[in-house]
Amino acid sequence: MKNNPTPIVDYLGELPECPTWDADTQSLFWTDILKKQIHRYQLHTGQKNIFHFDEEVGCFALRECGGFIVAMRSGIWLTAPDGTLTQKVCDNPNNPQLARFNDGGTDWLGRFYAGTYWAPRDYNGALLCRVDAALKTTVVQCNILGANGLAFSADKQWMYTSDTPNHVIYRTPLDEDGEPGQRQTWKTFPHGNGRPDGAAMDVEGCYWSALFDGWRIARFSPQGDVLEEYALPVRCPTMVCFGGKDMKTLFITTTRENMTAEEINERPLSGAIFTLQVAVAGVAKAKFRESQK
Questions:
Q1: Kind and range of the H or E element at 262?
Q2: Is 102 within any annotated ligand binding site?
Q3: How confident is the model at residue 2 (pLDDT cuts 50, 70, 90)?
Q4: Residue 63 assigned ligand-binding role
Q5: Which InterPro entries does the record associate with it (predicted)?
Q6: What is the DSSP string of 148-198?
Q7: Any known ligand binding at 197?
Q8: Is 100 annotated as a binding residue?
Q9: pLDDT in tens, 65-122
Q10: Residue 195 near residue 219 (C-beta atoms within 8 A)
Q11: Ramachandran bin of 18, using left for φ above 0, alpha for ψ from -120 to 50, beta for the remaining angles
Q12: Is residue 3 marked as binding?
């Protein structure tokens, strides 16, 4: 199967990220970080909703009980179904003036992972933290410049992450409780041909990565070999996720951040949300699961 990515909705964002599929409503959610919004698009009705926030939402997850868990610049919050902030989980463990939240999502236990992006870029000052069912926050990895690419293998053996500015994808072994071990360098990328950004896993253990500045997305085998590549009509894809009734639809967010008016005129679909039909199903994201009070 070889298709071309096509836009799915009349929308052009500044920095769309964190596409998230909701099987219950057959809806796609995503954040536009720079616009401080979460968007919802219901595929079979075409209905659109926008949830507004006072700060950038780097990443989020749907809650089992409704609403979102959102990683905003100053900290992580729980929201009501309408997006209203209801409970602060924690402050940003980084300095919020220097690092906003970026990529994140849930593991199969419904725990929420959120990484940060270290804006000064003078050293690897970002981190990856996790919120568990009791709303306890733990920093699980450091020595990161820009946290991205979070995904968990279907066999629950591996956590994958990328560090986009450092051109690297990491793989971390997980024990039977999902606790991470020693992070390993899994794949590095030469400069000038795309950097690994947001990602998703399929049921065959392959890792799908949006290659920022690379005009394409790629599917990598468990050994790190390129199995498939799909070209995009825009320079900077930011993340991918699986969805659709059979989980064989790939959704792709893209950005127009820091692009000149001339480049946007030449690549007017920059910032669009694309869809691509693929031959293998993806691993579904769990909703954030909280302890019963």
A1: helix 261-266
A2: yes
A3: low
A4: no
A5: 6-blade_b-propeller_TolB-like, SGL, SMP-30
A6: EEEEE-TTS-EEEEEEGGGTEEEEEEB-TT--B---EEEEE--TTS-EEEE
A7: yes
A8: yes
A9: 999 999 999 999 999 999 999 999 999 999 999 999 999 999 999 999 999 999 999 9
A10: no
A11: left
A12: no
CA distances from 89 to 62, 77, 204, 263 (A): 15, 5, 35, 40
End-to-end CA distance of the chain: 48
CA nearest to 276, candidates 182, 196, 208? 208
In sequence order, the 6+-apart residues with CB closer than 8 A to the CB of 128 are 113, 114, 115, 116, 139, 140, 141, 142, 144, 147, 150, 161
Judged against a pLDDT cut of 80, whether residue 187 lies above it is answered with: yes
Q: Radius of gyration over alpha carbons of the chain, in Å?
A: 17
Band of the pLDDT at 1, cuts 50, 70, 90?
very low
Neighbours of 215 (CB within 10 A): 18
Per the listing, tokens 């009349």 go with 10
* C-beta neighbour count of 84 within 10 angstroms: 12
Q: Is 26 helix (H, G, I), strand (E, B) or coil?
A: coil
- Give the mean pLDDT of the chain: 96
The catalytic residue positions are: 197
The amino acid present at 36, given as its one-letter code, is K
**pLDDT mean over 280-286:** 96
Which residues have C-beta within 8 Å of that of residue 233, sequence separation ≥ 6?
5, 267, 269
Q: Which residues pair with 174 in a beta bridge?
A: 180
Query: Distance from CA of residue 190 to its chain's centroid?
Result: 22
- Tell me, rounded to whole angstroms, the distance of Cα 28 from its chain centroid: 13
